[in-house]
Amino acid sequence: VRDGIRRMYQAREPVMYYITVQNEPYPQPAMPEGVEEGILKGLYKFRAADAPKNKPRIHLFGSDAILREALTAQEVLAEKFGVAADVWSATSYTMLRREALSCERWNLLHPEDMPRVPYVAKVLAEEPWPIVATGDYMKAVPDQIARWVPQGLYSLGTDGFGRSESRTDLRNYFEINSRYVTVAALRELARTGTFDKKMLNAAY
């Protein structure tokens, strides 16, 4: 809200901000220290893995209410499979893509200058682990940034049409809950050779 007021009314930029209201009540955690820039740019690390040394590593991206599914998967991966997962809050894939495309355009038009690096590539550069992204969106939404991440991105999303008795059932139907985040994470690690394929069946 503060940034929207600053840009629209103080700086008079030709942008529009809006507020999305959801109808699912759940406790809102305090904002982690030092993440304001990431929130505005579209991505920030919400909860790092605990004691990641000598463990397979992966990133879990979550958005809105489904961020909690990524947090649950983080715990399951650590406790049952010995995997260290960092959980990131993806606040806007559109902003990430827009900024990345802007960097690419600038690099194209300034071939003799130092290339600009997209924000999403920059924050992941020193942690080039595979990514599993989950959210209430279609898979095409997180797929927007796939070409700028170092080890590939596997998207879970609500493609198609589904009706269920509850949110829990609906998230299971669309395969965006913690169970499927866990399965996808282990599959991605097996693909990169850091998790034993023979152990995959234990996750299903």
In brief, what are we looking at here?
It is built from eight helices and five strands. The protein is an alpha/beta fold. It has a five-stranded mixed beta sheet.
Walk me through this protein's architecture.
The structure is a single chain. Strand 2 (57-62), helix 3 (67-81) and strand 3 form a beta-alpha-beta unit. The protein contains 8 helices and 5 strands, in the order ααββαβααβαβαα. It is an alpha/beta fold and 204 residues long. Helix 3 packs across helix 8. Strands 1-3-2-4-5 form a 5-stranded mixed beta sheet.
Read across the widest sheet, the strand sequence of neighbours is 1-3-2-4-5
Shape: globular
Largest sheet: 5 strands, mixed
Strand proportion, as a percent range, falls in: 5-15%
Number of strands: 5
Radius of gyration, in angstroms, nearest whole number: 18 Å
The total count of helices amounts to 8
Distance between the termini: 41 Å
Mean pLDDT: 92
Residue stretches low in confidence (pLDDT < 50, at least 5 long) are none
Which class of secondary structure composition applies to the elements?
alpha/beta
Which H/E pattern describes the elements?
HHEEHEHHEHEHH
> Percent range for helical residues?
25-40%
Keywords:
about 200 residues; five-stranded mixed β-sheet; 8 helices
Layout of strands and helices, then pairs:
Elements: H1 2-10, H2 36-41, E1 43-47, E2 57-62, H3 67-81, E3 84-90, H4 93-109, H5 119-124, E4 131-134, H6 140-143, E5 153-155, H7 167-173, H8 178-191
Parallel strand pairs: 2-3, 2-4, 4-5
Antiparallel strand pairs: 1-3
